[in-house]
């Protein structure tokens, strides 16, 4: 019996080894077995005391060299490629900035920014006029901008005014054909003048194929012999346009005046605050078309004067045989006839 036991022991050992060959082996403090599933109750540290990496993983196929069991972020993992793209190609956080009145043109990989030049320097046919130290200096800058604008049918120009007061003093601003003058709103942008000479423009002389919009024109002073004008189409020799403009005359004078054959002023969303609004024939074809606006003073003249969808708060003056009203109302909101007389 004892002899049989001695013969059985080696066979038992072989069977046990074969039985454990396909199961997870290895225990805390035990040997790390290659080709097997190893388990431990504590983290395993692999340290290379010589030069080079502590672990190098290789595969013979396109399979990944490393696989993890979940998507938890691994701290301090330094990856050189993400989806085949090198880390040097990734955009860093933008840390730079551009000065006022410029814009970001490009962003470098390191987060630096490339800035464009000043906005005004990038505009080709637009002159931006900003307020100067005084209203008079602002007015001088505006007159210089008009002089600089070389406008034509093939080369139209725009003068853009920032919010502010532009005082022309005793001078007038003469528009040019194919030049538009644009403010930043009639509540925030104002052009002033005290030029009240008879036949002079007062504040602005219109020009054919030009437009004035989004500002206020104010005539600040009229002397005893003057007849000042906020806007005149007398020398336009064609059609000129007003859009969202307030015309103000502080004393006597005319908010809007057209004088001369063939001249036409189209005024849309215009508020005329002055004693008079006038159009005179003087050769035939002179007209004012006043649309969706408000007239607070007397209107008169021998030329064609048409009010469309407007509020007429003043009374009719002399020589109004050619005045016409379409869907317009008096200051008391009475409907006006086509001849601008209140309807019963």
List the helices and strands and how they pair.
Layout: H1 2-19, E1 81-82, E2 85-86, E3 104-107, E4 113-115, H2 119-122, E5 126-129, H3 135-148, E6 157-161, E7 164-167, E8 173-174, E9 179-182, E10 189-193, E11 204-205, E12 210-219, E13 229-232, E14 239-249, E15 254-259, E16 264-268, E17 271-273, E18 276-280, E19 287-291, E20 294-295, E21 298-300, E22 304-308, E23 311-312, E24 323-326, E25 329-330
List the keywords:
344 residues; mainly beta; Pectate Lyase C-like; 15-stranded parallel sheet; 6-stranded parallel sheet; 3 helices; 25 strands; disordered N terminus
Overview of the structural elements:
With 344 residues, the protein is mainly β. It has a domain at 122-330: Pectate Lyase C-like. Helices cover 10% and strands 30% of the residues. The chain is built from three helices and 25 strands. The strands form four sheets. It has a 15-stranded parallel sheet that branches. Strands 8-11-13-15-18-21 form a six-stranded parallel sheet, with no helix packed on it. The longest helix has 18 residues, at 2-19. The radius of gyration is 43 Å and the shape is elongated.
């Amino acid at each position: 019996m004892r002899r049989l036991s001695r013969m059985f022991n080696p066979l038992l050992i072989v069977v046990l080894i074969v039985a454990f060959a396909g199961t997870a082996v290895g225990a805390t403090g035990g040997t790390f077995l290659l080709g097997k599933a190893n388990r431990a109750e504590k983290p395993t540290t692999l340290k290379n005391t010589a030069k080079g990496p502590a672990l190098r993983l290789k595969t013979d196929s396109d399979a990944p060299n490393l696989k993890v069991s979940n998507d938890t972020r691994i701290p301090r993992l330094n990856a050189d490629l993400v989806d085949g793209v090198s880390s040097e190609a990734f955009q860093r956080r933008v840390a730079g900035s551009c000065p006022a009145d410029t814009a970001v043109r490009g962003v470098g990989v390191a987060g630096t920014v490339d800035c464009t030049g000043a906005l005004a320097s990038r505009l080709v046919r637009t002159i931006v006029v900003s307020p100067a130290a005084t209203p008079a200096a602002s007015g001088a800058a505006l007159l210089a901008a008009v002089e600089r604008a070389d406008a034509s049918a093939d080369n139209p120009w725009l003068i853009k005014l920032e919010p502010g007061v532009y005082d022309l003093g005793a001078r007038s601003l003469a528009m040019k054909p194919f030049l538009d003058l644009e403010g930043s709103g009639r509540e925030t942008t104002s052009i002033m003048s005290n030029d009240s000479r008879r036949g002079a423009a007062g504040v602005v002389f219109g020009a054919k194929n030009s437009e004035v919009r989004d500002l206020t024109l104010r005539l600040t002073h009229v002397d005893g012999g003057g007849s000042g004008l906020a806007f005149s189409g007398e020398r336009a020799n064609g059609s000129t346009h007003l859009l969202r403009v307030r015309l103000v005359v502080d004393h006597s004078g005319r908010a809007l005046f057209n004088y001369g054959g063939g001249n036409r002023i189209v005024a849309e969303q215009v508020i005329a605050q002055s004693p008079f609004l006038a159009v005179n024939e003087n050769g035939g074809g002179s007209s004012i078309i006043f649309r969706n606006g408000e007239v607070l003073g007397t209107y008169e003249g021998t030329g064609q004067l048409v009010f469309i969808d407007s509020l007429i708060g003043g009374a009719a003056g002399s020589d109004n045989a050619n005045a016409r009203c379409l869907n317009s109302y008096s200051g008391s909101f009475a409907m006006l006839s086509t001849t601008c007389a209140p309807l019963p």
